[in-house]
């Protein structure tokens, strides 16, 4: 049931619940019943805002009128009742205002918490997931797939000749290159896959429920989009990456580091073979 529907039901229950409370007060002959009735009025107001507070407060007011005019036969008591009613609705307004302020403060705290979480898990330059957050999430995914015996793959991606990019075009342009690479990687992977800026000009991705052939397709897509990337600052500039892949069904004797290190080694082999290519292996 949605939160909106729950609140609607809660509001509709205010009147019958107040009537039940009034009935109990009347049966027990509790003195000065309006003071007792203030309790649920305050509760409903704080729990669900002004509407529920006014509904319950109106019910209490009707009972107060009955109490003074019929039970006590004291029309003069209506003045007292009016004072009590005024106090009740003052309480509703004050509690409702407190509720609204608390809700605003809670919203601000949630937004602050979200921003802190985002800052703690995001690479400031590229906007990609940072290394620590990636490793924590990837470890959980890896362990789960080890238990289920599902295939997993790691792509280790390194920008070719990135030092020359910084030396020739400057670090500002180098930063824009890294940001673009990060965007391309995210675009070429599934939403369920994990990726991050691993460090410097290195990126890493973890794909699960994915064998070598599918991982190869993803890697080729990344390489193709990187090669086609264009930059307004330097229209003639072209870029490439080297990718190492390690895939397979993990065993209980292997851990995530083994898979990452294997993909890293394959990436270096791709560099040694001339860059702008993919080297992969199947883990045992």
Description of the structure:
This protein has 284 residues and is an alpha+beta fold. It folds into two domains: 3-119, no CATH class; 131-282, 2-Layer Sandwich (Alpha-Beta Plaits), CATH 3.30.70.270. It contains nine helices and five strands. The protein has helices spanning 3-28, 33-48, 50-71, 77-121, 131-148, 162-169, 171-188, 212-228, 256-272; strands spanning 152-159, 194-199, 202-208, 241-248, 278-282. The chain has a five-stranded mixed β-sheet. β4 (241-248), α9 (256-272) and β5 (278-282) form a beta-alpha-beta unit. α1 packs parallel to α3 (50-71) and α2 runs antiparallel to α3. The longest helix is centred in the middle third of the chain and has 45 residues, at 77-121. 32% of the residues are buried. The model has no long low-confidence stretch (mean pLDDT 78).
The order of strands across the largest sheet is 2-3-1-4-5
Summarize the main sheet: 5 strands, mixed
Give me the CATH fold name of the largest domain. Answer: Alpha-Beta Plaits
What is the architecture of the largest domain at the second tier of CATH?
A: 2-Layer Sandwich
How would the global form be characterised?
elongated
- Report the radius of gyration as a whole number of Å: 33 Å
Strand share of the residues? 5-15%
Distinct helical segment count: 9
Distance between the termini: 48 Å
**Total tally of structural domains:** 2
Q: Structural class, judged by helices and strands?
A: alpha+beta
SSE series: HHHHHEHHEEHEHE
Write out the CATH superfamily name of the largest domain: Reverse transcriptase/Diguanylate cyclase domain
Uncertain regions spanning at least 5 consecutive residues: none
Give average pLDDT, whole number.
78
**In percent, how helical is the residue content?**
55-70%
């Amino acid at each position: 049931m949605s939160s909106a529907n729950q609140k609607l039901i809660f509001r509709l229950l205010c009147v019958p619940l107040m009537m039940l409370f009034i009935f109990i007060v009347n049966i027990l002959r509790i003195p000065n019943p309006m003071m007792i009735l203030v309790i649920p009025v305050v509760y409903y107001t704080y729990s669900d805002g002004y509407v529920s507070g006014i509904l319950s407060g109106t019910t209490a007011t009707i009972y107060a009128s009955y109490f003074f005019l019929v039970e006590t036969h004291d029309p003069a008591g209506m003045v007292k009742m009016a004072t009590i009613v005024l106090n009740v609705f003052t309480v509703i307004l004050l509690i409702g205002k407190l509720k609204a302020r608390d809700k605003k403060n809670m919203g601000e705290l949630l937004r602050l918490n979200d921003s802190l979480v985002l800052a703690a898990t995001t690479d400031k330059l590229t906007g990609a997931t940072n290394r620590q957050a990636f490793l924590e999430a990837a470890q959980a995914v890896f362990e789960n797939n080890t238990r289920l015996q599902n295939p997993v793959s790691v792509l280790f991606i390194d920008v070719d000749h990135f030092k020359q990019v910084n030396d020739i075009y400057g670090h500002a342009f180098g930063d824009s290159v890294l940001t673009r690479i990060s965007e391309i990687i995210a675009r070429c992977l599934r939403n369920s896959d994990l990726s991050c800026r691993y460090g410097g000009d290195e990126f890493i991705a973890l794909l699960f429920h994915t064998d070598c052939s599918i991982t190869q397709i993803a890697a080729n897509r990344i390489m193709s989009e990187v090669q086609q990337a264009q930059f307004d600052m330097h229209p003639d500039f072209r870029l490439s990456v080297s990718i190492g892949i390690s895939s397979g069904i993990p065993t209980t004797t292997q851990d995530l580091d083994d898979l990452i290190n294997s993909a890293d080694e394959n990436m270096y082999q791709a560099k040694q073979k001339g860059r702008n290519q993919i080297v992969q292996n199947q883990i045992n």
